[in-house]
Amino acid sequence: YLQDARGDKAPLRLTEHANGYRHALRWSPDSKKIAFTDQALTLYYADAATGKIVKADKAEYENVDVSLDRKPIADFSWSPDSRYIAYAKMDADLVYKIYIYTLGSGEINCVSSGIFNDFNPVFTPDGAHLLFVSNRRFDPVFCDFEWEMVYKKAAGIYALALRRDGAPLLPLRSDEEAPSESPAASGKAAKPAAGDVQIDFPGLAERIEALPLPQGNYRDLAVNKSAVFYLNAPEGDFNRFEFREVGPRTLYGFSLEDREEKTVLEGIDSYQLSADGEHLIYQKGSSIGIAAARAAKAEGTTLDLGELKMWFEPRAEWRQIFTEAWRMERDFYYEPNMRGLDWPKMKQLYGRLIERATCRQDVRYVIGELIGELNTSHTYVFGGDIQRRAKRVNVGMLGADWRVDAASNRYQFAKIYRVPDWTQEITPPLAAPGINVKEGEYLLQVNGQDVTASRSIYSYFQGLAGQEVVLTVNARPVLAGARTMTVQPLNGEFTLRYLDWMEHNRKTVEEASGGQIGYLHLPDTYTGSAREFPKYFYSQTRKKGLIVDGRYNGGGLDPDIFLQRLDKQLLTYWTRRYSHDQTTPAVVTRAHLVCLTNRQAGSGGDMLPMEFRMRGMGPVIGTRTWGGLVGVSMFIRLVDGGGLSAPDYRIYTPEGQWIVENEGVTPDIEIDLNSEEMARGYDAQLMKGVEVLLEQIKADPRPWP
């Protein structure tokens, strides 16, 4: 719809699409057309006067796990004369290339070399150049542990001269030439007049120059007459999974006159350049601000949004939210036939319940029931304008188990959790240097308050997480002879207890196998395992057997990044005169492998035992996994801040068979955990892994030279 800003006229409906999710709307500079994309990766433009819609192009390929506004072809911009649209599109080779669409003729020209990932194209206001970001800086960062490398901060900002005889964006300057000297005065080709865009497509990809900027993670280019603006995250916060990496960013401006980069705004979430190029509007948390569009430190004026109020009828909004949720599943769910469901009928069926909703929580529940009809994992509904709950009060945690001494009605330290001193991920409060608390001792006071078992032990630590707390401790349940110490309680004990559990398993395996078998646990297929895997892998490569524990794996991404290290093939040895022989690859294991899994492992946790088996790495032991192998590229927001997910891709085999989703991965050796055995500390799945590996080691020793 098109609505005048004052609201004096009735809205004009521009599109007549029955289905589809249209987004990334951008006016042409002449205010006569609106370009937009849809969920099917199609680029359109509409005539603002007649509503006529023209399809410009369509992308056929995309990466997984990218936010909606980062999808192919959503990355487009208008030329200043409104005759061209530049956009980025991924081709079959999975490389992003920049294309220019010509309105009227419908001609499409690729202006990229096809070798590098080029994206985020923007025209300069004079129509002489096309700026874009390109990942073409390949400076490797080497691993400290093995011959591995990654390429970080691969992006630079580049400019294409659109005319064959066009001047460079940044002409060379002689020592005598003043910075403001015009191209004509210096004998260089003159730039075309503003609005007069001429593009000579032959050889365009070769007419390229790089802006003198360090390699980085550049995004969201914009340009006015004096500067190029962009977001950059030097620490690598930008990546394919941006929607999971929300955080403040820095806006920079590169002065075309001074040819220097200046910080414009820090700690912002997003920004946009005004149509005339004179101002920037930016979002910083919940605040909106406006700043001058210059390559200089901007003060920024925060807008007063306190008076932006509106009346709305909750039930009408709830109907819209329900309908929008229904549409989102219709448009983004991976299977067009919605797994055989009559989706319009589902809308009618559950829509009747919305009329009976009495609060936003009811609406969320009904939406959950609606998308539950798909019988698909990764379908979530969350948030919204719900009634605020009471403020949560933290509870300080000491990293200990407790028992009650009935005779004295006092708490004793039953177990004090510790972690190996080589990890600084978490510091157990009672294991810090100088805190000599022993198991079996009594906690008598907290900050001078007497502690008895008449109350929950945790009630004495309300609001004390992260604070300095004085404990009074004694070997006897009396104050006489007690000692005091100052500790800093944790906000939670999950990580501490997890690390203790993992180290306990490693030691159990070590003892049960006589040191022959190693152990490592993968808590997820994302950042958790990215930290834990190298901790335990490199020190156990020479073990004769290795248990890969994927139980309780919460998923994330593809576990291949971990399995390929375990599955490397030993190719050669290198003899040394004074030391043991070395190998190619330099880090490789010959260990027999088993994988543990259970019903609490899902998503990437399903994929871990599945790929382990497909690679022929060894048997899978445990219970059948959760059974959730679809993917979610984005979480889509609703009008009141809530949201939901729509699984938009699903795994299948090269033979064309659906796998794992709603089935799980069945182990080769099925072993369940017995609650009685667990209570006395016996892990049947873990010990079965030891048993299997000892048998394999005996049958096939695989000695090192």
Task: For the structure shown, list the relevant keywords.
705 residues; alpha+beta; Methylamine Dehydrogenase, Chain H; Pdz3 Domain; 4 domains; six-stranded antiparallel β-sheet; five-stranded parallel β-sheet; 9 helices; 27% strand; globular
Chain-wise SSE layout:
Elements: E1 22-27, E2 33-38, E3 42-47, E4 53-58, E5 76-78, E6 84-90, E7 96-102, E8 108-110, E9 117-123, E10 129-135, E11 140-142, E12 149-151, E13 155-161, E14 208-210, E15 218-223, E16 227-232, E17 249-255, E18 261-268, E19 270-273, E20 279-284, E21 287-292, E22 301-302, H1 314-332, H2 343-354, H3 360-372, E23 381-382, E24 400-405, E25 410-416, E26 442-446, E27 449-450, E28 469-474, E29 483-487, H4 494-512, E30 517-521, H5 527-537, E31 545-549, H6 560-566, E32 572-574, E33 582-584, E34 592-597, H7 604-614, E35 620-622, E36 630-631, E37 635-637, E38 643-645, E39 649-650, E40 669-670, H8 675-679, H9 684-699
Helix pairs in contact: 1-2, 1-3, 2-3
The description of the largest β-sheet is: 6 strands, antiparallel
Rg value: 31 Å
Average predicted local confidence, pLDDT: 91
CATH domain topology of the largest domain: Methylamine Dehydrogenase, Chain H
Relative strand content: 25-35%
Shape: globular
State the name of the first-level CATH class of the largest domain.
Mainly Beta
Structural class: alpha+beta
Fourth-level CATH superfamily of the largest domain: YVTN repeat-like/Quinoprotein amine dehydrogenase
Which spans have pLDDT < 50 for at least 5 consecutive residues?
181-193, 236-246
The helicity comes to 10-25%
